[in-house]
Specification:
Number of strands: 12
Number of domains: 2
CATH superfamily of the largest domain: Type I PLP-dependent aspartate aminotransferase-like (Major domain)
Largest sheet: 7 strands, mixed
Length: about 375
């Protein structure tokens, strides 16, 4: 590989897929004169999401983080109340629990799908446990039948952090629609994007009405707009979580291309699987696993290397070849804040620690060229020969 060639190649780990038709949707909003949230475009996107994912209620939010915060606020958590969640997740999952007034209890992930270890989850339930936040990783579902059975037997609420699970399924059901409520992300790094945005989903009428109040600054404005009250006022705690109609316009264009985006990601995912299978057979790495009961949305393609040192070395070499890669995540139980504020020093999650140290994410996005994927595969072979 020549130095000149190395400098000209540049493959990012992610790139948002944007269609020029989005300008027409944005112009529609601009022409309407309704640029803030909960307008005609926002309502149209919420209805579209309900239809696409077979869910009764969808509330667009300014982020998945805020959708999770809404879910926790609905629980009326007390200081001693516990909410179990994997440590292998983004910080928003734990922050939402803390903002809601509860205490996050970190549990293990399984080695197969990198989602919640059901047995460890069950072991960590106490008389103080109010809920579990299940995190669907890389577009692959957690074992929801088992989670739901455990939670129902103990009167626990199930919240699905489906930030990475939009348009993925578990046994034919869309992720985010199986528990009591779910949260989606439409952040710039996700499959379907609007820059910054998310959604709160539920089939339960009571939770939907609470959600309307929370995201409207604690007011009953939604009831007012439906003509159910003659004026609206402050009725509960809340914040400002409604997505602008301008961002909803961007999201609508993405949802119109839902299947196109998914199919392109699937093709890239399968190219990686085929091109790297020999390295797995020679025990140089481990490829991701999609169980038969899952339909992935192919959000992330990752490999598991044999050590943190090897992972970091490969990452550095690929960068020299013009290929951007990244790790995922620093476990929350070992983070500075958790150690200091939550006292997690003695929490032992060996699978989480090992996965975090060994995992490497490869470039995957709809516009990536076949030749670029082949180039990544070729350079990985060079790094691991």
């Amino acid at each position: 590989m020549t130095t000149a060639t190395t400098r000209t190649i540049s493959i990012p780990v992610n790139k948002p897929f944007v269609d020029d038709r989005v300008l027409d949707y944005i112009k529609t909003v601009l022409d309407s004169g309704k640029l803030s949230g909960d307008g005609p475009m926002g309502k149209a996107v919420e209805a579209q999401l309900c239809e696409l994912f077979s869910i009764t209620h969808v509330l667009l939010t300014t982020s998945c983080t805020h959708a999770l915060e809404m879910a926790m606020m609905m629980l009326d958590l007390q200081p001693d109340d516990e909410v179990i969640t994997p440590s292998f997740t983004f910080v928003s999952t734990a922050n939402a629990i803390l903002h809601g007034g509860g205490k996050p209890v970190f549990c293990e992930i399984n080695d197969r799908t990198l989602t919640i270890d059901v047995k460890d989850f069950e072991r960590r339930i106490t008389s103080k446990t109010r809920a579990v936040v299940v995190v669907h990783y890389a577009g692959v579902s957690a074992e929801m039948d088992e989670v739901m059975a455990i939670a129902r037997a103990r009167n626990m609420v199930v919240v699905e952090d489906a930030a990475q699970g939009v348009n993925a399924k578990y046994k034919g059901k869309f992720l985010g629609t199986i528990g009591d409520c779910g949260a989606y992300s439409f952040h710039d790094t996700k499959n379907y994007v609007c820059g910054e945005g998310g959604a709160f989903l539920t089939d339960e009428e009571t939770l939907a009405r609470k959600g309307e109040i929370i995201r409207e600054k604690g007011t009953n404005r939604a009831n007012f707009l439906r003509g159910q009250v003659d004026k609206y006022t402050w009725v509960d705690l809340g914040s400002s979580y409604i997505l602008s109609d301008l961002l909803a316009a961007v999201l609508k264009c993405q949802l119109d291309d839902l299947d196109v985006i998914q199919e392109r990601r699937r093709r890239i995912y399968e190219m990686y699987m085929m091109g790297l299978r020999d390295l797995e057979q020679h025990e140089k790495l481990r490829l991701p696993i999609i169980p038969e009961y899952c339909e992935s949305n192919y959000h992330i393609f990752y490999i598991l290397l044999r050590s943190e040192v090897e992972r970091n070395t490969v990452m550095k070499k690929l960068k020299e070849f013009g290929i951007q890669t990244t790790f995922h995540y620093v476990p929350l139980h070992s983070s500075p804040f958790a150690l200091q504020a939550l006292g997690t020093k003695d929490v032992s999650l060996p699978v989480t620690d090992r996965i975090s140290q060994n995992l490497l994410r490869l470039p995957i996005y709809p516009q990536i060229e076949t030749a670029e994927v082949e180039y990544v595969i070729e350079k990985l072979h060079e790094c691991l020969k």
